[in-house]
Amino acid sequence: MKGKSLAKTADSGQAGMTGSKFYKAFYEFVKNGTIVMLLSLLSLSVPLYASAVSYPAQLYHHEERRDKFVKGDTLYLFHSGTPDVRKTIHVNDTLAVYRTSPSCEVTPIGIIRVISFVGDTYIRGEVFAGEIRPDDIAKKDNVSCLVISAEICDK
Predict the structure, then answer these.
(1) Do 85 and 139 contact (CB within 8 A), yes or no?
(2) CA–CA distance, 62 with 101 (Å, rounded to integer)
(3) Per residue in 127-152, pLDDT tens?
(4) The domain containing residue 90 runs over which residues?
(5) For 4, which DSSP code?
(6) Are residues 47 and 78 in the same domain?
(7) Which phi-psi region, left, alpha or beta, contains residue 70 (left: φ > 0; alpha: ψ -120 to 50)?
(8) Calpha distance 51→33 (Å, rounded)
(9) Which of 7-16, 58-67, 127-136 has the highest mean pLDDT?
(10) Are residues 70 and 133 in the same domain?
């Protein structure tokens, strides 16, 4: 009698899903392409998430790049945007420009005159003396700015 009640319980589905039924259901799940569809959606959502938090630099700079700037050329400097920059550097100030060699030797190479501030983190300047290249450092007192190779967009 006890054997009949156990068999009856297993046949009625009350004992839960057996191993072979689970694998059969999983096979149907895979066969229908549900897993492939879920993996495809996941792979598409990752790049969307990544581009939501990053921005392409070309939106903020023109594509034209310069290798060097000589006397009379207008160039742009990037700075930190902190208040000490605006306290130290003013329009018509001159900044000494230095170049660092691969052996970390710092050499003075030119002078830049400040024309104006552009936005919160850029300075427009004019080369007063020397041949200045992108990645050179312009300094005044304890403030340093990086010479960049592209013009700022006026947006």
Answers:
(1) no
(2) 27
(3) 999 999 988 999 999 999 999 877 66
(4) 62-152
(5) H
(6) no
(7) beta
(8) 28
(9) 127-136
(10) yes
Give this prediction's pTM.
0.57
- Which residue type is seen at 125? G
- Express as a percent the part of the chain with pLDDT over 90: 34
Q: How many domains does the chain have?
A: 2
Pick the closest to residue 133 from 142, 121, 122, 146 (CA basis): 146
* Spatial separation of the C-alpha atoms in residues 117 and 83, rounded to whole Å: 13
Residue matched to tokens 């000589």: 70
- For 109, the token pair is 């190479």
Type of residue found at 35: I
Cα gap 68→133, rounded to integer Å: 4
What tokens does 53 get? 């938090």
- Identify the pLDDT of residue 9: 44
